[in-house]
């Protein structure tokens, strides 16, 4: 698991750990019944990259000044200045998605000493983590406190596949020809491999520093039969079909996250500067063409669906 991971910024809120030197967050109830995000401002657009600053979480069992110490674990958001960790609280919460029914989870909320507050991924790939990755998150409501007695900045966490997406300038095949992804609109009709023309139900975008988990993957022209370079997010799942797929999986085709295809030659990481990711969602997961390559618009995975059967 990485020490840098994706998170969602919830805002600068009331400080919930007001008494140092202990393991509790005394004012955790201040956030109960609050809702973050909504139809016109989905949380999906507030994704950030959280990474350690000047440490490797060596004091991850203590919060700021816990137990009379002054360990000052620090972290950075999107490569910015250091922020001092204060507390971590688990809340019973409700997630509402852009295109899926709401679910209840136990959400991990972490805060710095200035009240900057974040929804962070799980330590393990459990059902709560599957829920975070099920679809684009529209809003989060904190329903109650599950545990406000955590003692500090937790260990390495899941990367969190917030969204699989294309970058600005990618040509998407549509019913009216090739269109740059940033020019697509809700209601556009997009050819899909399995279900013909499908209506685009939601589009979103976010701009981030091209570093850490937000470093895009460059698929050079010709790598997958594409005429132009294709730049996608690390978790963007590409459809691949060659003799190696059959050898390793027994199937003619398989999906693979772009980051797992990096070979240092025609598929490479491209860090540096800013990158804008564009999210495309339909009524269901679809295979669409971007720069001539087939990839998934959205795919929750079997585990995600199974985790909500009851």
TrEMBL record:
A Pfam family this chain is assigned to: Hint_2
Domain of life: Bacteria
Hedgehog/Intein (Hint) domain residues: 165-301
InterPro entries in the cross-refs: Hedgehog/Intein_dom, Hint_dom_sf
SUPFAM superfamilies noted in UniProt: Hedgehog/intein (Hint) domain
Protein name: Hedgehog/Intein (Hint) domain-containing protein
Organism: Ruegeria atlantica
Lineage: Bacteria, Pseudomonadati, Pseudomonadota, Alphaproteobacteria, Rhodobacterales
